[in-house]
Specification:
four-stranded mixed beta sheet; 11 strands; 46% helix; metalloprotease; elongated; 534 residues; transmembrane helix
């Protein structure tokens, strides 16, 4: 990799006299024709002009002849030609004469020898801030970042990897385990008063066994998904049960129905197993009470998940049925999501009323008191989870409907080739002259070696750019950073997630360089796809 020129060298200077000043009409016409440039993403463009103008008055050592460059193909736009364009390198071009003249101090002030240059050999690269999804480089902000792969899918305490799928216990599980221990312990005090304080140990065992049943329920979904060759990101045990995060949708309504039904089916099987165990042990004992509690709990889990509304398993089964009838997966999602929202309202109003009337097995209660408040709070939490899940299902369905619009070919930026020792200011000048928005470092044979990061360009002050080589701001091109121009939709997002980076080299099937794809551009298109109505 090349290094930046030493002190006293002016990379953009010319040994010739400054160009004559243009007339006022010519300057105004040139300003009207000027388009936004790559280096205008940072402030103080006037300082850059002054710095480059000062470089024009200093002598420059003889530069070696520029190496041949390769043609970069501009991404096609409506009504424009797609022929390759090779910008003419002008390493010794003088700055425009219309820029303000530098002062004598600016002409003679040498660079401090102790000041390290990012382009010098042995100089460590400064860590660059990451994009925040809106094209800034300050590391602040947020929003969905689909192309950025997350190597650690985290989400709590890792318990194991059955079938290669990580299982996490969320922190909220410990809260619900404590709640179950307290509630079930109170019931044991009435059924088995002789246990005393040991009843809470029995209750804790029940909480763990119950969530083990929930894990078996989720493993049923996971095994079915793996059987259908659908990737599963993780299983997470949460406050209200668990979730299997399957990263892709099924291809047919039949598989969708099977994938959703196996979870409640296995919960019913577990309830039958616990019922069979109850028949073996003596009633009124600790094993008998535990088996009875686990049987009832699994029956509740199966019945609740069979309710026909997203995001529950019954909602996915309803979605599969409507999908099969209409032939449109989006229609099934809309129907199941709205049923899920109606179900959320029913839970919010109906669950407290059923508890107070004794319809769920308890004694009728008067309205008021702590029990009523607890029932209302539990109903509100359940309703919020169902309502939010239904809305998320709608948004994800809308996104998948618009994903084919995300095409690498249409999102790719035009790029210009530069050598590793090229000063940043000169590289930006070539890019601006060519109407490009990306830089690719090439070797002597014109083969691409690295992509200059936009975040690194923005972080370099204007007055330092003539002395910073592009090699210190680039990321080497790995195999995963070379992507096909034909990628689109979910396949494009999967490719970007597999190799997280800020820029990617886009190539044709023939190997010809097409341009540079910025992850920030994909993220913006992703957000627009989510916001666009169906």
């Amino acid at each position: 990799m090349g290094s930046a020129p030493g002190a006293g060298q002016r990379p953009d200077a010319s040994p010739t006299a400054p160009a004559p000043q243009p007339s006022g009409d010519e300057a105004r016409a040139a300003e009207q024709r000027r388009v936004p440039t790559l280096d205008e993403s940072s402030a103080a463009a006037g300082q850059r002009a002054a710095a480059e103008a000062s470089a024009a008055d200093a002598p420059q050592q003889q530069q070696p002849p520029a190496r041949p460059t390769v043609a970069m193909t501009k991404p096609p736009r409506d009504g424009q030609d797609t022929a390759p364009h090779t910008p003419e390198p002008q390493p010794n071009a003088a700055p425009p004469a219309s820029q303000p003249a530098p002062s004598d101090d600016a002409r003679t002030a040498p660079e401090r020898p102790s000041d390290p240059r990012p382009g010098d050999p042995g100089t460590p690269r400064r860590p660059e801030p990451a994009f925040d999804g809106v094209g800034r480089a300050d590391g602040k902000g947020g929003g969905p970042t689909p192309p950025t792969g997350r190597k650690n899918p985290g989400g709590g305490l890792l318990m194991g990897r059955p079938f290669g799928v990580p299982v996490y216990v969320a922190p909220s599980w410990f809260l619900v385990a404590a709640l179950i221990t307290w509630v079930f312990g109170g019931q044991l005090d009435r059924v088995l008063p002789e246990l005393g304080g040991a009843r809470y140990l029995v209750s804790l065992f029940f909480a763990v066994a119950f969530y083990a049943s929930v894990l078996v329920h989720e493993l049923a979904h996971t095994i079915a998904a793996l059987r259908f060759k659908l990737p599963v990101r993780r299983i997470q045990l949460q406050f209200f049960g668990g979730v299997s995060e399957i990263e892709k949708e099924t291809e047919t309504p039949g598989r969708e129905f099977v994938l959703a039904f196996v979870g409640p089916l296995l919960s019913l099987v577990l309830a039958g197993v616990f019922y069979a165990g109850m028949r073996v042990v003596e009633p009124g004992t600790v094993p008998g009470v535990l088996l009875a509690g686990l049987m009832i709990s699994n029956l509740i889990v199966a019945a609740f998940n069979l309710l026909p509304g997203l995001p529950l398993d019954g909602g996915r089964m309803l979605r599969a049925v409507v999908w099969k009838i209409t032939g449109k997966p989006m229609s099934g999602t809309v129907a199941a999501a709205w049923v899920g929202r109606a179900l959320a309202i029913s839970v919010l109003i109906g669950l407290p009323l059923l508890n107070q009337s004794g319809a769920l097995g308890g004694e009728p209660q008067d309205i008021g008191g702590m029990t009523t408040v607890t029932d209302a709070l539990l109903a509100a939490i359940l309703a919020a989870i169902i309502w939010t899940g239904a809305g998320n299902s709608l948004r994800m369905a809308r996104l998948r409907e618009h994903l084919p619009e995300l095409r690498a070919r249409t999102l790719t930026r035009r790029a210009v080739p530069v050598e590793s020792h090229t000063p940043l200011s000169e590289a930006l000048r070539r890019a601006n002259d060519a109407g490009a928005r990306a830089l690719v470092i090439v070797d002597a044979d014109g083969d691409p070696m690295a992509v200059v990061r936009e975040a690194a360009i923005v972080s370099v002050p204007q007055h330092r750019r003539p002395w910073v080589a592009v090699s210190g701001l680039a990321q080497d091109i790995t195999e995963g950073m070379r992507i096909s121009a034909e990628l689109a939709g979910e396949e494009l997002l999967d490719t970007l997630r597999a190799t997280p980076a800020t820029e990617y080299l886009v190539v044709e099937d023939s190997g010809e360089i097409y341009g540079v794809l910025s992850a920030a551009d994909v993220e913006r298109a992703f957000v627009k796809a989510m916001a666009r109505p169906s």
